[in-house]
Design brief:
The chain has 258 residues and is α/β, with parallel strands linked by helices. It contains seven helices and ten strands. The chain has a single domain, classed as P-loop containing nucleotide triphosphate hydrolases (Rossmann fold). A hairpin with a 2-residue loop joins strand 9 and strand 10.
Length: 258
């Protein structure tokens, strides 16, 4: 009997070099009842990402990419399968415990920015630290440093409606790195941007990620963006349809050849 798509090596690279899996999602499925029919959105997907590795999940609209991301982050619960995120099994955790785990170890970048409109750029970036109990002057200084790194040093006191789409996404990117996450999840991070602005945001994502040594799971239908990741996993109809040859290699540790 042929191997199931979820067991394909393209989705399951070994961490190598003694590094642990920061994401270990095994045999995930998600089904819904719709108009009396059972709809399977994610179908027996296994995905493992090592510390510091970059992985793009690629597929057309409706392929299950965003649903898979929700399962891997604990924002949604699978119908079957299990997820270990940053060494913790998400299954036994309640919603508050999952939220606490994410606040400590996970960063997010969304297509729609999701900034709080009544807070300044600086205040938006500080929010994750405050939720993790790490507010105060040191948090404000780090927020200002991150905003400087993304080119917004002169926009600290501006509110989201006063910023362009590209500037808002750069604020969101600074916010994602505020608590020095072990893994960053980005869902169509350039989907609402024009080509030139998207290119600048892409550069920042990978530059900041490399500096921090953070694992990156990137959901996109943009092949050019996906090509910048060390690995690709292709979804079609909720199942793993394949990946490129790089997916079979472990991520290189800092200073190692890829």
């Amino acid at each position: 009997m042929p191997a199931s798509p979820s067991s394909a090596p393209s989705a399951n690279a070994s961490p190598g070099n003694g590094r642990a899996f920061v994401l270990d999602a095994a045999h995930l499925s998600k089904t819904f009842e719709s108009a009396g029919r059972r709809l399977t959105v994610v179908d027996d997907v296994t995905l493992r990402v090592a510390e510091g590795q970059t992985c793009a999940i690629v597929g057309p609209s409706g392929s299950g990419k965003t649903t898979l991301l929700g399962l891997c982050t604990g924002l949604d619960r699978p119908t079957a399968g299990h997820v270990r995120l940053c060494g913790t099994d998400l299954g036994p955790l309640d919603e508050d415990e999952r939220a606490a785990l994410r606040s400590r170890h996970v960063g997010f970048v969304f297509q729609t920015f999701r900034l709080i409109p009544t807070l300044t750029a600086r205040e938006n970036v500080v929010v994750p630290a405050e939720l993790a109990g790490q507010g105060g002057g040191a948090a404000r200084e780090r927020a200002e440093d991150l905003l400087g790194q993304v080119g917004l040093a002169e926009r600290l006191g501006h509110y989201p409606p006063q910023l362009s789409g590209g500037e808002q996404q750069r604020v969101a990117l600074a916010r994602a790195f505020m608590t020095e996450p072990r893994i960053l999840f980005a869902d169509e991070p350039t989907g609402n941007l024009d080509a030139e602005t998207a290119g600048a945001v892409e550069d920042l994502i990978f530059d900041l990620n490399e500096q921090a040594g953070t694992a990156l799971v990137l959901v996109t239908h943009d092949e050019a963006l996906a090509d910048r990741a060390a690995r690709q996993v292709h979804l079609r109809g909720g199942r793993v349809a394949g990946g490129d040859a790089r997916a079979a290699r472990p991520a290189a540790a800092p200073g190692e050849a890829p």
